[in-house]
């Protein structure tokens, strides 16, 4: 096993901002689900002019909570870690209320086919208004804060983390979370990208990670290393199962995920597809159609 452990405790109240670090407050959107945990985390950054990171779902009560937490301070920047609906569907309304500019990574995923399932239009909003296109290393500045964008594809091809410069704080979106593993769902999600992005974060010396769902991560490098080991262990577990005759994703599900909650079978299925694709890319396995859960997998 990888030794990965989850922390599901989280102190919060819906509609009430919680201080995460000096000049950083979190609001939790009321969109709890098996994939979003207690809800999407929205962060307000700054003491004067404010940046809002991930405005969350389209929800009037959450919008009102963001504006109330701003307490009259101008919201000048709206940043999206990625284009999944639970992070950006509330962007239009917040932009209309504040006149803030929007910032995100304009990856080709914004024009990707609207696939069925977990990565389809039900989950992804490719059409939110983007005022400023960010790249890896882009800096965004406010009155008393400066953020740097880190391109961390894997969960989504347009995924960004944001470092709060000079503080050791990084807003890690859905790339790393304390409460569960991150869903990597092909074709938009790609395991090889995800692993490289974890390695990028492992090379840093951050002190605090603030994720898109769940509680704060106070040991970033240890957590990121555990995620890397977990994914490598899963690759090996899949290869071992395939060598023992479990040769399709459908058959692998009950072998790799024991006592699986029926609410997350879809997420587990696409995650297995991502691992099989990753194994095939490295020449460790062969599969004629990694998009099919019934295609035969052969260990090489």
What's the pLDDT, averaged over the residues? 91
The largest sheet is:
7 strands, mixed
Which ranges are low-confidence, i.e. pLDDT below 50, for 5 or more consecutive residues? 109-119
Kindly report the name of the CATH homologous superfamily of the largest domain: Ribonuclease Z/Hydroxyacylglutathione hydrolase-like
Strand content: 15-25%
| The CATH top-level class label of the largest domain | Alpha Beta
Number of domains: 2
Widest beta sheet: strand line-up: 1-2-3-4-5-6-7
**CATH architecture label of the largest domain:** 4-Layer Sandwich
How many strands? 14
What coarse outline follows from CA principal-axis ratios?
elongated
- Helical content, roughly? 25-40%
CATH topology of the largest domain: Metallo-beta-lactamase, Chain A
Q: How many DSSP helices?
A: 7
